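User: Structure with calcium ion, tokens only please.
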Amino acid sequence: MESPSRYMYVLCMAVALICFPTTVVVSQDFKDFNVLFIAVDDLNDWVGYLGGHPQGYTPNIDTLAKEGVAFTHAYCPAPVCGPSRTALMYGIFPHRSGSYGHDEIYNARKIIGDAQLPLNLVFQNSGYYTAGCGKIFHYPEKRGWDEYRRQIGGVAAKTKNNLGKGIQLGFGVLDTDNDSDTGDGRLADWAIEQLQRRHEKPFFIAIGLHKPHLPWDAPKKYFDRLDLKTIQLPEVPEDDLEDLPEAGKLFARAKVGFSRVDDHQAIAEVDGAWEKLVRAYLATSTFADANVGRVLDALKASDYSANTIVVLWGDHGWHLGEKQHWRKMSLWERGTRTPFIIKAPGAMANGKRINVPVSLQDIYPTLVNLCELEVEQKLDGNSLVPLLMNPESDWDKPVVISHGPGNFAVRKGSWRLIHYADGSEELYNVETDPGEFSNLANHPDFQSTRTELQEHLPRNWRYIMGKRFKNFENAFAKPQQ
Ligand SMILES: [Ca+2]
Ligand SMILES: [Ca+2]
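Assistant:
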């Protein structure tokens, strides 16, 4: 496959080599890029470069964002680990695969045909050495790895906090100050060892950090950075849910299989609980960032720094009270926006921020495009190579996010349309109203915007209902055949 965008990329690289021979060092053929693929579980936009929280502290991710192409409005295909990763790694939208959640019924290996190859297998089939550790897939995928370690045990938490009131949001201090004693730290060390090897073939090395997924356990130094008294809580207007349709209210406050209580109500009833949770999430995110930093430092110190593409992504967002919602599983900005950075050698947009909405669904086609891999299957999403070449490119593609059968969000330009399976909707201007406080779906001035966004809603989707969604069953709809 020789796509025009790939051709343009090579052309730009060639121009860069002629014009700036000292700034671009490419020792191999363009198709021999290595890939360092970094996934961070449950990392929302509370990272420095995205500014989702003023106390977000992620210096290593921010450095990568400055060196590479920093996507500021990147969204998950679905707001929960399993379907987001399935979509990303197999190149198929959740509404086409039917992988919406975490029940066994959504197991990717069961509902996606063998002909839809995972990304790492395509690299392996293309002559790459493939090594992975940690959480890349949600449902284990044995195909396509030369080496793989899912987990490497680390020290346990020496203190665990119980907030009471049935709140099941655990956090604690790990019994070490050395990151390399922790589970994620050991995964980072495993990836570092891979980068220090002498590789005969181009490589695809993947690391999936488990934090900041719950429980929010991290070494003490990360908690100590933040005084509880200074913690800033997200802005949550008391009447925020009043302009939501019933389906929106249900998704905001329902007990969704991960919790047996109304999280927001329980947290409000325990003095200081909200601050402790915000601090624990921020601390664990900084801990994750430190592990990212060690891997990136190892790449810089290796022989592969100049010809390795680095991709970093979080698998979905996370609410800490916004919309009176906790955890993932929402179609709002905080539940769906993630960090996403691509640093490709010689890419003209390196060092730039790209503000148009893009999807993690775009990662697979982008890497296939950059590395010139042969792929027979249909790939959902778009290659972002035109944006990597020219950050000013016209790019007005809608991003579609699924949450169970028939519930979608569309992000396009500065707008978000949420369409629930019962037909009710929310509409927000994310630029002027980043907290999405004002639902404009019924505002007379914005009906043409609403209609335009509706055109991007999938007309058909696979209907598969998992157990965890049972209390939402009436909120889901079968496709109109
Ligand atoms: Ca996740
Ligand atoms: Ca509102």
